[in-house]
Amino acid sequence: MIYSNSLEWRSNQNMDKTNRSSEGTPFILLGLSTSPGQLRPLFALFLVLYIAGVVGNGLIVAATRASPTLHAPMYFLLAHLSFADLCFTSVTVPKMLANLLAHDRSISRAGCLTQMYFFFALGVTDSCLLAAMAYDRYVAIRHPLHYAVRMSRAVCTGLVAAAWIVSHTHSLLHILLMARLSFCASRSVPHFFCDHQPLLRLACSDTRHIQLLIFTEGAAVVVTPFLLILASYGAIAVAVSRLPSVSGRLRAVSTCGSHLAVVGLFYGTVIAVYFQPTARYEAERGRVATVMYTVVTPMLNPVIYSLRNRDVQGALRALFTGRRISTEPT
Question: Using an 8 Å Cβ cutoff, are 133 and 74 in contact?
Fold first, then answer.
């Protein structure tokens, strides 16, 4: 069954942690399952999800760049979110797909740290961009007359640049600390990619400094955008409650529902996996939650955010047919 390797992994943790392995010894990614009957169905399922995510997010990026109707701030931020999602899912899923069909599931220490670096950098970028999009909706609903000034191209570019800089700085700090760890003879990672929680369980050296980083600086770069999102939607709720017409309220709420759905899914799984002590980490639950925000959420984002939007639909049709479209948004 899926996750059948968890008992093997737990037993490995009882080995003498003084038995350290060579620094050149690769890690073994146990993946989602080792049952021969499940490998090909899992490969087919995740291949379809991965292709759908890559194509969907790629089309959003291409349509936003090509269409003059999608040069508004919300679409500028959406294009960067789609690009980050495309890269985010590509950090882990191709290796997982290869391991589902391969006999050798090893990954070098350098490859493991590199995968972890981009995973964290792109995950934090997603978090920051979701906060920027919440602020965009706040300005559009609360200050519609000043929207063009408050969400100018310079402001949007600054928000996106800040997201990328903060995320890569955080990830670099995290990886520099992880690179200093020594690992035990057991190198079996009960996951489909190099995540830091299962790796910390394999470490022979002291991990308290990394745990402290996770619950301080790591919490700050994830929780701060989340709090900004809550503050933005609190202000939006107040503004919507003051609108005189029911239709106006429904129209305002409809522009936020999709974003709130993705925010709930993204932050719910992230908090469930990462904001807990290593000793309480459960490999099975961690893998399920991680699949949700590394594979499912990036695939759903183009649908949730865009495919019901008439501007985006028109831009996609124009992209496929090669025709020009009006510069006036619908």
Answer: yes
Paired tokens of 65:
């760049």
Handedness of CA 37, 39, 42, 43 (dihedral sign): negative
Distance of CA 25 to the CA centre of its chain: 29
Q: How confident is the model at residue 328 (pLDDT cuts 50, 70, 90)?
A: very low
How many Å apart are CA 153 and CA 149, to the nearest integer?
9
Whether the pLDDT of residue 323 is over 70: the answer is no
Instruction: For the chain, count helices (H), then strands (E).
Output: 13, 3
Query: What is the rounded CA–CA span in Å between residue 270 and residue 195?
Result: 12
Cα dihedral angle (118, 124, 126, 132), rounded to 10 degrees? -140
Token pair listed for 76 = 């500028």
Predicted TM-score (pTM) of this structure: 0.83
Distance CA 327, CA 320 (A): 17
The four Cα atoms 171, 172, 177, 179 give a dihedral, to 10 degrees, of: 110
- Answer yes or no: are the C-beta atoms of 36 and 4 closer than 8 Å: no
Please list the residues that pair with 184 across neighbouring strands.
20
Q: Please state, rounded to an integer, the average pLDDT across all residues of the chain.
A: 80
What residue type is 278 in one-letter code? Answer: T
Q: Which residues contact 192 (CB under 8 A, 6 or more apart)?
A: 29, 31, 32, 92, 95, 96, 99, 287, 290
pLDDT in tens, 220-259: 888 889 899 999 988 888 888 877 777 767 776 666 777 7
CB contact set of 258 (below 8 Å; sequence gap of 6+): 304, 305, 308
**Under a CB-based contact definition with an 8 Å cutoff, are residues 53 and 86 in contact?**
yes
